[in-house]
Amino acid sequence: MSVDERAEAKRLAARLRETREYLDLSQQFVAEKTGIPRSAISDIERGERRVESLELKRLAQLYGVTVSYFLEDEPSDSEKAMRVLARMLGDLNDDQREEITRFANYLRHSTRRGRRS
After folding, report:
1. Which of 71, 41, 66 is nearest to 55 (CA)?
2. Interhelix angle for 27-34 vs 53-63, to 10°?
3. DSSP letter at 98?
4. Which of 27, 45, 90, 110 has the fewest CB atoms below 10 angstroms from its CB?
5. What pLDDT does 75 receive?
6. Per-position b or e across 7-23, b if 16+ CB within 10 A of its CB
7. What is the four-CA torsion angle of 107, 111, 113, 117, rounded to 10 degrees?
8. Is the pTM of this model over 0.90?
9. Based on C-alpha coordinates, what's the Rg of the chain?
10. For 3-71, which CATH class?
């Protein structure tokens, strides 16, 4: 395995662990829902075991993301913020979404934030 491949495997392992922890899921819960042994989940998240493609697909489904989320380069801060906002917007009603839009527009044009458009 090349240095690049090892780095990619470590990044994938970290992203899998971070996603599971972000969702506040235990390794045991993930094992029960996916059929992947808990010890394998642990090994995968430490980068000590390769994740098989079908396992990655099951993990992505459980975590509510696409497989490409785990494989793509690290998202930028603005992409991360957009993902968080997109998840949150789904829980809001129309009036709340409109308020968020007005606030975002205000921030975009605000000179108090040290930026001018």
Report:
1. 41
2. 110
3. H
4. 90
5. 67
6. eebeebbebbbebbeee
7. 70
8. no
9. 18
10. mainly alpha
H-state helical runs in the chain:
3-22, 27-34, 38-45, 53-63, 67-71, 77-89, 94-109
70's tokens: 């785990």
Residues near 10 by beta carbon (within 8 Å), at least 6 away in sequence? 47
Place of tokens 């968080």: 84
Tokens 């108090």 -> residue: 112
50 or 105: which carries more pLDDT confidence? 50
**Hey, what are 28's tokens?**
């045991």
- pLDDT tops 70 at residue 70: yes
Segment 22-27 mean pLDDT: 94
d(CA 54, CA 79): 27
Residue 64 DSSP symbol: T
Identify residue 71 by its one-letter amino acid code.
L
Higher pLDDT, 52 or 92: 52
Going by pLDDT thresholds of 50, 70 and 90, the confidence category of residue 19 is very high
